[in-house]
Amino acid sequence: MPFLTVVYALLFYLATALLVGGLAYKIRQYAKTPAPLKIPTTPAPVTRSGVVLRMFRELAFFESLFKSNKWIWVFGYLFHFGMLLVLARHLRYFTNPVWTWVDLIQPFGLYAAFAMAAGLAGLWARRFLVDRVRYISALSDHLMLALLLGIALTGLAMDYLTHTDIVALKAFFLGLMYFNWQPIPEDPVLLLHLALVATLMIIFPISKLLHAPGIFFSPTRNQVDNPREQRHLAAWAAKLENR
Amino acid sequence: MADFETPELKEYPVIPHLQEGVMAHSKPFVAKEEFQESLGFPGELVDNWEQVALDKMQELTGKYRGFQVFLDSCVKCGACTDKCHYYLGTSDPKNMPVARQDLLRKVYRRNFTFAGKYFPKLVGAVDLTKEVLDDWYSYFHQCSQCRRCSVYCPYGIDTAEISMAAREIMDCVGVGQKYCNEIIGKVYKIGNNLGLPQPALVDTLEGLEEEVEEDIGVKVRFPVDEKGAEILVVTPSADFFAEPHVDGLIGYAKVFHEAGISWTLSSYASEAANFGMFIGSYENMRKVSLRIREAALDLGVKRIVMGECGHAWRVAYSFLNTLAGPFDFLDPNYPVPQHILEFTHDLIQRGALTMDKSANDDMVLTYHDSCNVARASRMGSKPGGQFTIPRDVIRASCNHFYDMPQDTIHEATYCCGGGGGLLTDDLMELRVKGALPRMEALKQVVEEHGVTHMAAICAICKSQFSKVLPYYGFTMDSIVSVHQLVSNAIVVGSKQ
Q1: Quick one: closest CA in A to B99, which residue?
Q2: Mean pLDDT by 10 residues, chain B (496 residues)
Q3: Beta bridge partners of residue B303, listed in sequence order
């Protein structure tokens, strides 16, 4: 087996393990930590189904961000939903036969990659151009955008500049999934693209990318506004009553 | 008047450019030993304070899901950077919500995250030093916990939660704030924030009865500690002595009189405000809340009604059931607690009150949504009732009402500048500057509609505005209580 194949195979096993394990650890931590007080940002829904709707609007439309700042909203939306389509498009490298809906979205996935890159560029520009955002940006905030933009640009490069052997690539990933390793195409742009993706997977659970699971556990967004109707009591707070 | 400049009211609100460190000098007085200790905190900075602080931080991340999630989730997108009234009024970048949070988050990162432990420079993580603690003391006392940032954050991160945690950590290492901690001590000792003892309270209320009788020729009662009354009224102690608060109290009394329902104040629970929230202390907040439960049990009332007070209503509406419940000994037909505005609104809706709106014709009114009522509570059964119910009551009490610009009311309302335990003279500069966005909005309706008065339903808002309005060229009596309008308009005795 070629050396690079072994390196990338092990890299992706490691990255997947850290991503899944790390996220599981954080999600468990969030789920197990009590929210002792009712703190939804009001006006808030008064029913559980209302909360589901609020959360859906937050995820599907970035409702709060839309209220806040249209520039961040536009760039953030282009980036996130561009990336979602791009990821969905990539499912064709991991499924055999390829699912029909994945086939159908292939043409849109390409435009989505441009949207993703444009959104990231806009978000990055803000970190230089707006003095308030420049002030709050750490080096890691810049590097995170560089990493994501690097992924988008190397991906686009393989569509428009230097094609890679995607049949062999698909064989490589299916091989990883079924523990039947196949050689990876040794194309520098592809190798860079994959190395960046693996890096992203590894840092996901130890970085601000935790906002993805975090939003679901945010008490200001996921709590029902019913404190007068239902008594809400955390276990550690209940202990105070027995003292 | 003061050793700082009052910001200029511009034609249109402008987001200021950063001026680093311009508010670093702003700090409230530190609590003395005796006030720290009566709350269960060490009297002065403890020897191993760094470790005590970190231990407390870890304890809080395990007790409050919000705190843990908020520390992890910020992506520094910048959505909140122009949302805080203290940033808009001072230009100090550490008053941008994200930067304020980062004062604490950078210490969290350094000690509790992989990236911060091994790559501190990369992610902006720092050790907890005396300089950092000083920054905390300064800037976590420049947050009024108004939650405006939490409306606009795509993850709902609430800086109020971070600043409450920071204040709790500071209390636990022995660096508490004088204003808040002294007041909580007074509540434990005497029963209210002002330290007004029972005989003085009785005296004040008797005086009010006489005053009202002279004024309208009807004896309207102001009962205190009356066992067997139907309703216990818990109101901020400011209502007992200062304008315009006391006019609101007179309004409540007239409403109860007209409704024909017996009510009473309690000298034991003679305070609606709960400063335990400001310092982020669940235990102290609970201890203050339990006084209301004990008073209700002791007096044998069937309902609890809260007076006009913003943060008090948050604690009462959102937390009282948690902290001091269950209230199964009260009449289950009414929410516990009820807001005085819900009570009055209901009577108006049912046509049970006769209102002469022309009694308020000398005023053109606008309404200031108090931050904690707007973004941390509700009135009535529908979301947003906290916006419509006060306005309905105002409209039923006067002929001339105009709202301030949309982006400064309802959930977008600006804090008065004095909330969250900052209503103290040692923070005057901050209070004046923090009022800027509200003053700009007020100026707009003054110029467009000839507004003469602003109504509010919070003791802090009313006190703060009385003090800061003159800095911006308005008169201090242009702030009024909503129940003051009710008091003027209500025709007492019409239903008998």
Answers
A1: A136
A2: 83 92 97 94 97 98 98 97 98 98 98 97 97 98 98 98 98 97 94 90 96 96 97 96 94 97 96 96 97 97 97 97 96 97 98 97 98 98 97 98 97 97 97 98 97 98 97 96 98 75
A3: B231
Phi, psi at A93, each rounded to 5°: -85, -10
Joined together, the tokens standing for residue B360 give 């308020």
Task: Give the closest of B62, B282, B383 to A44, CB-based.
Answer: B383
* Phi-psi label, residue B204: left if phi above 0, alpha if psi -120 to 50, beta otherwise: alpha
A-contacting residues in B 273-312 (Cβ below 8 Å): 282-283, 286
- For residues B429 and B6, the answer to whether their CB atoms sit within 8 Å is no
Q: Which two tokens stand for residue B188?
A: 């434990």
The tokens describing B176, both together, are: 């508490």
Residue B2: what pLDDT? 58
Whole-number Å distance between alpha carbons of B426 and B423:
9
Buried b (16+ CB within 10 A) or exposed e, B108-130: bbbbbbebbeeebeebbbbebee
What per-residue confidence (pLDDT) applies to B340? Answer: 98
Assigned token pair, B263: 């009510």
The neighbour count for residue B271, using CB atoms within 10 Å, is 30
- Residues of each domain in chain B carrying CATH 1.10.1060: 33-176
The first and second tokens of residue B458, run together, are 């919070």
pTM summary value: 0.96
CB contacts, 8 Å: B282 with chain A: 36-37, 237, 240
Pick the CATH number of B33-176 from 1.10.10, 1.10.1060, 1.25.40, 1.10.510: 1.10.1060
- Determine the 3-state secondary structure of B401 from DSSP: strand
Nearest to A121 by CA among A159, A153, A84: A153
According to the model, what pLDDT value does residue B1 have? 44
Residues 6+ apart with CB under 8 A from B452: B362, B363, B364, B365, B446, B478
Interface test with B, best of A42, A124, A134, A216 (most B CBs within 10 A): A42
* Own/partner pairs, B357-361, CB within 8 angstroms, 24+ separation: B357/B396, B357/B397, B357/B398, B357/B399, B357/B489, B358/B399, B359/B488, B359/B489, B360/B397, B360/B398, B360/B399, B360/B400, B360/B485, B360/B488, B360/B489, B361/B398, B361/B399, B361/B400
| ipTM of the complex, rounded to two decimals | 0.96
Edge-to-edge strand order for the sheet containing B365-367?
B365-367, B453-456, B479-481
What is the domain-level CATH number for residue A69?
1.20.950.20
- Nearest CB to A33 within list B68, B382, B386: B68
Tell me how far apart the alpha carbons of residues B255 and B261 are, in angstroms, rounded to a whole number: 9
Number of domains in chain A: 1
**CB of B113 within 8 Å of any CB in chain A?**
yes
* pLDDT < 50: residue spans in chain A: none
Q: What is the pLDDT of residues B118-163, one digit of tens each?
A: 999 999 999 999 999 999 999 999 999 999 999 999 999 999 999 9
Radius of gyration for the alpha carbons in chain A, expressed in angstroms and rounded:
22
Residue whose pair of structure tokens reads 């700042």 in the numeric block: A69
Q: Which domain holds residue A151?
A: 3-241
Rounded distance between C-alpha atoms, residue B325 and residue B171, angstroms: 27
Query: What type of residue is B239?
Result: D
Alpha carbons B393 and A11: distance in angstroms, whole number:
66
